[in-house]
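Sample 1 of the test manifest.
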Amino acid sequence: MAQSIRRAIDLIRRSAEHPLSLTEAADVLGVHKSTALRILQTLESARFVRRTGAGTYVLGSGLIELSELALGSMDLRQFAAAHLRALQRETSHTVHLAQLTGDEIIYIDKVDSPAFDAVKLPSRVGRAVSIYASAVGKTILAYLPSEERDRLLSHVVFDRFTGTTFADHESLEAELVRIRENGWATDNGEHDAYVMCVAAPIRDSRGQVIAAVSITAIEVIANLDQLRSNLPRLLETANQISRELGHTPPPVPSPATPEDGRSIDE
Amino acid sequence: MAQSIRRAIDLIRRSAEHPLSLTEAADVLGVHKSTALRILQTLESARFVRRTGAGTYVLGSGLIELSELALGSMDLRQFAAAHLRALQRETSHTVHLAQLTGDEIIYIDKVDSPAFDAVKLPSRVGRAVSIYASAVGKTILAYLPSEERDRLLSHVVFDRFTGTTFADHESLEAELVRIRENGWATDNGEHDAYVMCVAAPIRDSRGQVIAAVSITAIEVIANLDQLRSNLPRLLETANQISRELGHTPPPVPSPATPEDGRSIDE
DNA sequence: GTCTACATTGCACATATTGCAACGCTAGCG
DNA sequence: CGCTAGCGTTGCAATATGTGCAATGTAGAC
């Protein structure tokens, strides 16, 4: 497509993983060293990579700056940051914040648990998360306008990652109904068998669900029931963030209206 | 140097600022639309940019992911995050965390004040900060081993940004001595006349200063004295973070040893 | 000192990138 | 309804651009 740009991207990627010497860079691209040098020089001039004292190249501040610019424009992240950290501290589990961006659901913040399980979680801010095999994905999906939901699901090829994955339209729809009834979602090892999550929706000022917050643990640390015991605190966090975004919860209807399948918060 | 890569970088930059249509992209580069299209397609395949529903291009999650990878490797950021946010909440000023990376001092976290001054602060995570005209810069500089300090300063061309800037080696050295005596630094509008800061050092497990935390306000919000009234809380935050990094403060010597010019914490 | 390993520069070549022109699509409008 | 204007997209030929080579510079090991 665009060879030199591809090569540049490749070098950026590699340099983000570990420091790259020129010879190394030339090797991974399969090009002459002089070629690699000129690519790296160009990237360096934009501060996309940086030369260390040892002469190796690592990711530069220019890129970080750009990505902060993009993330920073998300008010949500700002408003949520403190709440997420409080939630992490009080539950001691890893906390995620994910948002629908285009056709993908992206982690836009993550607060690691200091416990050792953190290293095993593959999630990362900026990375996309499965839309149908994650608690945050299903939560956002559940509250999406149906035509939008159909659009997203039309691209999806269902993959049965584990025994608990909702890997077809029918069972997924049933799950989404349950989520709307509860007002929250779980992930019972649906993507990775040993990873458990509970998630709750975040709404903007129009009442539209735009994101979800979740707590995660691997099963040896906490099973799904133990995780679920944090639900009140999780829902409280989600509602606090929603409120800061300008969401005013509708008056709670009298308790005797259970025939409305939608969440009482809707 | 490498034309197409430069163009790609330019488009990444622009797309981070605001959504870019294809024709717009071609215009800013001064190239044909087909050329711009192919560059954008290449970037899109790496998720460096993303197509919106409207057909415009915005910054993609691939970049964010990369930068998280680089920032995430900095334990410091993780450990500090919650403390910084608490400090912001309690002082109501903007909080910065900066770290020496290569030859530059880079902001690696920032917690905006909800007050209106936030928009006027040009600082941004990933961006370099002046090494001699900022509170965090001077703090880190003050505690650097002298040969390392000389190396950094040898590149520097002094610029007298404002009337208070320490714009020559001599006055800067005197300031650094003061900082070591105090254990903290101020920025009395030394880069931007109306921006005030107070900063404190963060140490790693070897006792080496590797970063600094600061609180910032514009003068109409708080003058330097008002800002300085938050010193106890700021120092406490810096020490907490140091402790989490494994720093064990040396036993405080008996009060009667003032002849040691270095900080008592050293 | 010599050797090796690595980064860097100048130059000739050819290949990847470019601009062009033609096409398809959608939306607006007479 | 059909016309036009604006935008994105594709195929192709020309050449500017990026490439590899060979020579040079530099630093460290022995």
